[in-house]
Amino acid sequence: MNLKGRHFLTLKDFTAEEIVYLVDLAASYKEKKKNGIAHDTLRGKNVALIFEKTSTRTRCSFEVAAHDLGMGTTYLEPASSQIGKKESIADTARVLGRMYEGIEYRGFEQTIVEELAKYAGVPVWNGLTNEYHPTQMLADLLTIREHFGRYKGIKLTYMGDARYNMANSLMIMCSKLGMHFTACTNKAYFPNAELVAECQEYAKESGATITLTEDAMAGTKDVDVVYTDVWVSMGEPEEVWEERIKVLSPYKVTKEIMQNAGEQAIFLHCLPAFHDLKTTVGKEQGEKYGFTELEVTDEVFESAQSKVFDEAENRMHTIKAVMAATLGA
Does the annotation mark 106 as catalytic? Predict the structure, then answer.
């Protein structure tokens, strides 16, 4: 399958077959990595990594994946980039496109990464925007494949704030691949109705289903994957903490939720997670609002059902696949 020259901005742009191809390619790269087989087929190429939002997994995944493929990387953080400040996005794209074979962007509005793609002249990859997180989806799919051996028919429930990038992308992923997606949250936090309708059209072709429910037990009964994310995202104001904790507390992933899902179920989280108070932010907010864990209990996070570190590792293998496929390795 030839994906050379393609951008990777949202899974809406890819067919089910193309998505599966990328996951298969990632699995092959993972096997090579584990067996010490060199695959530096893009030696001499370079990629720019624009991070308006910082990250551990995304940055490390792109840098290690690029190194394994033989490429050089330049990391541009907010302090070292003039994108959108002293230089327009279009001009930044045209400059970087003359110097690099590919550009990664992690930041805010989807329109920014789309404008980069419009003007760069080289493949642009979405490392996360407010609306979509497509590289995370490939890592999730590889993790699901490793544990269940299939995609079609898998039941996945997302618990928490379902209005933004994670729930949006999971709903797209499931509807394209014939998986059953449930958003389990307060109705004020349901996904955008327009995107739900779009995904229902994908679901008609794949055999997927989309369910929105406020009932935590009904939404997690006998499912294969229970998924959550932080309740307060990077860059959100301090005042949203109290509201989110109050509204989303019924949707915390607990031992009872995992028992309701069943012994076969796995727990996934894109990380970082507030499962204890061993972080600066967690400690500060925990003391302020009286919690010791938020979206998931430490008991679940550290359980055998939790596959979050397999999932985190798979970020690197799947990002490698995206870069290799779109750059023509």
Answer: yes
